[in-house]
Amino acid sequence: AGAETVKRAVQLDAASRFQESLVCYQEGIDLLLQVVKATTDEAKKHRYRQKISEYMTRAEDIKKHIEKEKQDGKYHKQIRIEENATGFGYERLFHEYLTEIVSEVWVEDPYIRQVHQASRSSLYNFLRFCEMLVKGPCKVKTIHLLTSYDVGSGRSQQMSALEEIKQSLSNYGVTLNIDFSSSIHDREIRFNNGWTIKIGRGLDYFKQPRGHFSIGYCDFDLRPCRETTVDVFHTKHTKKM
């Protein structure tokens, strides 16, 4: 398992997919260290240690490269979510960027509203996203939402739902600031540790479940997705709204 994981790390490294490569190197090194502990053959131990040393050096170089890209504001990672893919719940997508220092979050999405039944999930998706933030490990104190007004009678439903989310968040010591714009088009999420995540479909990249008692209705990791692209950037300064 350790050899296979390291082999995958080398492939990702060669493809310049450095963030993913680093994770595989780290996992592979841990597995190989376990093999060294269990091996009694000194010659094999020596060979394993040599390889581990090489992988650790490369992992350290990648770490420095990623850190430099962050400092220069050039870091960019792209994730392609295929049609009907599963395993892309919010925790899976965002967890590595929600470090303990995150205390402020900006969400820009023009469709956190409900115009008809098919889009009603947008408000629930935003609620799910807020629940993830409340669970941590970050200590979020403020969430800024910029969206657009719903039309017609849907506006009162939208305002009522957002106010309920706001009140509920306040019970957990989180302030929700809500602003509206008629010209907003971009969809992005920013954390005050410098990470910006742009999702082509915003938070609403999940397909509707087949029914209220279908697998994936409650657990978003099991819910099929619609095809979309996720772009992740790191910048020194997170812009304000």
Automatic annotation (TrEMBL):
Residues 1-71 form the MIT domain. Gene3D superfamilies: MITD, C-terminal phospholipase D-like domain, Phosphotransferase system, lactose/cellobiose-type IIA subunit. CDD domains: MIT_1 (cd02683), MIT_C (cd02685). Transmembrane segments: none annotated. Pfam families: MIT, MIT_C. This is MITD1 protein. It comes from Eulacestoma nigropectus. The lineage of its organism: Eukaryota, Metazoa, Chordata, Craniata, Vertebrata. The gene is Mitd1.
